[in-house]
Amino acid sequence: MENESYQLFKTDICGFCARVQQFMGQRSINIELRDIMRDNLAHQELLEGGGKAVVPCLRITSGDRVDWLYESMDIIRYLDERFST
To answer: Could you write out the DSSP letters of every residue in 49-78?
Structure first.
């Protein structure tokens, strides 16, 4: 988690996005949310950076490195490891 920052690309109509957001709420994890249906720039960033406009997607930035993690359960596992107490 050191020096990492996160953005969750999502939509309001995606049940898998809701699952990730519910997990984040239960753990009090505060990550910037980017709605690709309301924000054209977010949609474009996801498509160009991640290679596909599929949500949910967690953008993980660590220094100069950017990783794109898809699949709700993979995102939840990743966040659980990073934010477990």
So the answer is: HHSS--SSEEEEEETTEEEEEESHHHHHHH
| Cα gap 52→65, rounded to integer Å | 18
Q: Supply 43's token pair.
A: 């949609």
The sign of the CA dihedral 84, 56, 66, 38 is: negative
- Which pLDDT value is given to residue 46? 97
pTM of the model: 0.94
Contact status, residue 84 vs residue 29, Cβ threshold 8 Å: no
Backbone angles phi, psi at 56, to 5 degrees: -75, 155
**What does the alpha-carbon distance between residue 27 and residue 84 come to, in Å, rounded to a whole number?**
9
Question: Tokens 């898998």 — which residue?
Answer: 16
Tokens representing 55 are 């949500």
